[in-house]
Amino acid sequence: MYWEKEIETLDREQLTQLQSKRLQETMQRASKTSYYKKLFEQLHIQPEKISTLKDLQNIPPTTKEDLRSGFPYGFLATPLEEVVRLHSSSGTTGVPAIIYHSVSDINSWSNLVARSLYGVGVRKNDIFQNMMSYGLFTGGLGMHYGAEKIGTLVIPIAAGNSKRQIWFLKNFQTTVIHIIPSYALLLSNLIKSEGLDSSRDLNLKIMLIGAEPHSEETRQRIEELYQAKAFNSYGLSEMNGPGVAFECAYQNGLHVWEDAYFLEIVNPKTLEPCPAGELGEMILTNLNRQATPILRYRTKDLAYWIDEPCPCGRTHYRISRIQGRTDDMFIYHGVNIFPIQIDKVLMNNPEVGSNYLITLERKDLRDTMKVEIEIKPELFIGDLPKLERLRERIQAEIRSETLVTPEITLVEPGTLPTTEGKAVRVVDKRQL
Amino acid sequence: MAHQVSIFAENKPGRIEKLTRLFTEASINIRAITISSANGFGVIKVLVDQPHKAFEILRGQGIPSYLQEVIAVIMEDLPGGLHRVAEVLAENSINIEDAYGFVVMSGKNAILIIQVESQPRAQSVLERNNFQLLTDEEIYKY
To answer: Domain end: B69, B103, B126, which one?
Structure first.
């Protein structure tokens, strides 16, 4: 069950030593980049003196805006000829943040992905259908290389074209898929409407779900729909891509690959470290990247440390599933709300279908929040009072989860906007 | 037994149009229709000559629908006609959850459709009291 037993089960003390050693190397590499060189000079930081993880905290965090400001080569630590690939993070406007990879970077990243996949049971004889975008987005290529390293047959089908996805799933009897969770919910409807039954006609065993925050309830629903195990995958292009943290067979939190990343979880306002169990923003430092070493990257992703040892035997600490992002939280009637809180409530109700939309509006100086929910056709039993009770129950459950009372509307299946990429769950139309 | 098809619909223009179009294309005849709604959505109930076919068509379109048995009882289209049915049900403590009726021959016959919690019991109570219950085919004979 281990890809690299020694490193995955390394004694904590040795793991910390390894991190410190790699941190020193990273500091040396970082000081070769124009961005960090200038920063160290300004702040009178001597890179060789940063040797412990505690010292690292003297360095201010790097933000996405910093990465952009370094365009094109501000974060490049090797000669350009050593670079074999670049990726860019999904910026919607302006200059993208570019991450360069050397041959050894691609190898170690692929190895982390292979480690993650092997840990959840992916093997050489599997057939792996990679339903994520290829290209500048790291989800597709990152997972592809890791799966190939294991020796799996990879179908690089990429995102979209649901009919073709289903055709391959069926005709190649695909055993492993990599998919965005909201798309997995939609695709299962299409599988049904093609007259197929996931447990009878498909051969799926393992699903790797990631690229957007999702609740435990969503995972359970996906597992039921596909009759396969779904494992939570975490990564971000600034830190390579998939393979930063991954669930093991126990599906209880994600192991952060601490030989490659140093993780801090901090209060996003004060930057003070959070104790285990307390939600905070993840700050990540590369420990073995050659071409683009990034120190203390503010991910905006929120999670908490789990401080109990995992029964799988891996010593790398676990984090909770991502609970949201600092920038997807919205404030409604003075209350901070994460979409995942609503996701949890909805996915726990079997009558709820696979799509929903939260809309915030301002009418006559008053904010309104509307949750439109597609109902599941199979569970409609022709009864209006029952629907009304469902609506009231969901409203009450959201109130108890978030302390606010949204307007709930039940809508027909297939009427809300869909996407084959990351789902849009919240539309905020309020003009401030 | 007679069958009724219920359809979930948002309270938006074009819903009845779509439904009736599907039925027209499939040559399905509608005998009765009722609509109830609350909070932006509602349930449309139809009594048609081919309920199973109607249900399959709707389901094929991904429209949330439900096919269920209902009691169709024939009564006289005269003062007190409905009262006689209601009286028997009340005497036997049977609660009517939903009901609608329509006249098939003015001044002569009307059909009452009722939904109750315990369908078989209501059925036997009505039969014992000499009410005639209709099947899908029989509804269309009148």
So the answer is: B69
Of residues A92 and B20, more confidence is placed in B20
Residue B14 is classified by DSSP as T
Share of chain A above pLDDT 70, in %: 99
Residue B109, domain extent: 71-139
| Inter-chain CB proximity A412 and B68 less than 8 Å | no
Among B4, B8, B43, beta carbon nearest to A412: B8
- Chain B residues with CB under 8 Å of A418 CB are none
Domain boundary among A302, A326, A350: A326
Q: How far apart are CA A343 and CA A341, in angstroms?
A: 5
Q: Are residues B125 and B85 in the same domain?
A: yes
B65 to A102, A380, A381, B51: CA distances (angstroms): 57, 7, 7, 11
Contact B94, A409 (CB under 8 A): no
Give me the domain span that covers residue A238.
1-326
Inter-chain contact A382–B41, Cβ cutoff 8 Å? no
Q: How many domains does chain B have?
A: 2
Contact A391 B66 (CB under 8 A): no
Q: Are residues A268 and A342 in the same domain?
A: no
Please name the residue of chain A whose CA is at the shortest distance from the CA of residue B36.
Answer: A384
| Cβ–Cβ gap B43/A382 under 8 Å | yes
pLDDT over threshold 90, residue A317:
yes
CB pair distance less than 8 Å for A377 and B37: no
pLDDT tens digits for A336-373? 999 999 999 999 999 999 899 999 998 888 899 999 99
Report the distance separating Cα A378 and Cα A353, nearest Å. Answer: 9
Within this chain, do residues A303 and A345 fall inside the same structural domain, yes or no?
A: no
Closest to B25 in 3D by CA, of B17, B13, B33: B17
Predicted pLDDT of residue A93: 65
The verdict on A64 and A194 lying in the same domain is yes
Q: Is the pLDDT of residue B142 over 80?
A: no
pLDDT in tens, B55-66: 999 998 889 999
**Which tokens belong to A180?**
């965005």
Q: Which of A380, A388, A412 sits opposite B10 (nearest CB)?
A: A412
State the CB neighbour count (10 A cutoff) for residue A145: 20
CA distances (Å), B77 to each of A216, A346, B48, B98, in order? 58, 48, 21, 20
Kindly report the nearest CA distance between residue A115 and chain B, in angstroms.
41
ipTM score for this prediction? 0.84
Which of B37, B39, B63 has its CB closest to that of A391? B39
Q: What is the DSSP string of A249-271?
A: TT-SSEEE-TTTEEEEEE-TTT-
